[in-house]
Amino acid sequence: MISVPERTAASSSLSLTIKSYNASVASQWDDFALNSSAATFCHLSGWQRVIERVWQHRQYSLYAERDGAIAGVLPLFLLDGRGFGFPFGAKLISTPNAVYGGVVANDAEAHQTLIEAAQTLATDLQVDYLDLRDNGLSGHQFPGAEFHSQNLYVTFEHTLSSGEDELMKSFPRDVRRMIRQGAKYGLSSEFGREEFLDEFYEVYATSLRRLGTPVFPKILFAEFLREFPASSDILLIRQNNRVAAAVLSFYFRDTVMPYYAGAYREFTRFGVNNFLYWELMRRSAARGFTRFDFGRSKLGTGACEFKRGWRMTERTLPYKIFLVRAKEPPNLNPTNPKFKLMIETWKHLPLGVTKFLGPKIVRNLL
Fold first, then answer.
1. Of the candidates 112, 101, 106, which has an alpha carbon nearest to the alpha carbon of residue 40?
2. What is the pLDDT of residues 90-116, one digit of tens each?
């Protein structure tokens, strides 16, 4: 095991020290994240605990300390796929299972020093690359030529107004029509938590198989619900007693984040996907949330085009890659032609087989 030695950077006033995360600083870490405008739900210590419990990936998270107070955080995990029978290699990543990650810091010095510490750690671990899923909100300049930009993803956001009519009018006509289609055909919504987990997982796993994508294990979602009892839930869409769609969402400050979702194909003609997200927005706004984070999608995918149809604010996510052993940045885009046969094969596997094999495959593709 490689330990991270404390590093001290010279400062005009107080020294800055880089330290390894441990459970004793979880409360301070979360206080920092909650009070930093650039931090996200994925930066919380609870996210790291879920990753450790579900995937058993080794954590190497770092934080910057100045005068006894945290000045910056960088959640980091080692995903080592060497020797598992799949050509996944090893990577140091911020953050697994997450849309957002990367450094969050009070100032440029803490930001830069944390990045340099991560580069050193990646080199010491001899990973293929360091993957920082920066959200582009830090306000600090990122290092230059040694990092490769990966502008493969975009994220979508929308302001939630408390008035339903005003919120509805903020969307294009065809989106409004599909939302009303759902109501016309008797779709209804209901919030829940663990009691909806089985129904959620079934529709989620079915949807991912249809897309040719390996599914996560059910325990991942159980652990998220357990870790965040006050800031996660499941919204279930039904037609009479039949489940039509479901989404597991997270809540962070003023924001609702639909994170994992699925819908049964036979309800597509009823506008079930539009109805699902409308109900989440409408009901979240009534609970006082003012921002809807539609999450990331890869450019060129159907999910990206679906989200664009809502005409929300779109922003490119400036992910950064630092190469250590690899010669070029990874290309895990589903539009990559070399994945075509694998994706088509996956679509035709029995659902039970995809539930069994999926977690074994995605463990090192998070």
1. 101
2. 999 998 999 999 999 999 999 999 999
Kindly indicate the confidence band of residue 151, based on its pLDDT and cuts at 50, 70 and 90.
Answer: confident
User: Could you give the CA distance from residue 239 to residue 185 in angstroms, rounded to a whole number?
Assistant: 8
Closest CA to 72 of 16, 111, 102, 125: 111
pLDDT tens per residue across span 125-145: 999 999 999 888 877 766 666
List the Cα angle 99/2/11 in 5-degree steps: 75
Strand partners, 235: 191, 247
57 phi and psi angles, rounded to 5 deg: -75, 145
Number of C-alpha atoms within 13 angstroms, CB side, residue 49?
17
Residue 214 CB coordination number (10 Å): 19
CB distance 139 to 104 below 8 Å: no
The backbone region for 76, taken as left when phi is positive above 0, alpha when psi lies in -120 to 50, beta otherwise, is beta
Terminal-residue alpha carbon distance, the chain: 22
Residue in 218, 217, 214, 209 with CA at minimum distance from that of residue 86: 214
CA 213/CA 296 separation, integer angstroms = 16
Is the distance from CB of 101 to CB of 130 less than 8 angstroms?
no
Q: Are 52 and 38 in contact (CB under 8 A)?
A: no
In DSSP notation, 317-364 reads --EEEEESS-SS-----TTSGGGHHHHHHHHTS-HHHHHHHHHHHHTT
Q: Under a CB-based contact definition with an 8 Å cutoff, are residues 5 and 62 in contact?
A: no
The answer to whether the CB of 192 falls within 8 A of the CB of 352 is no
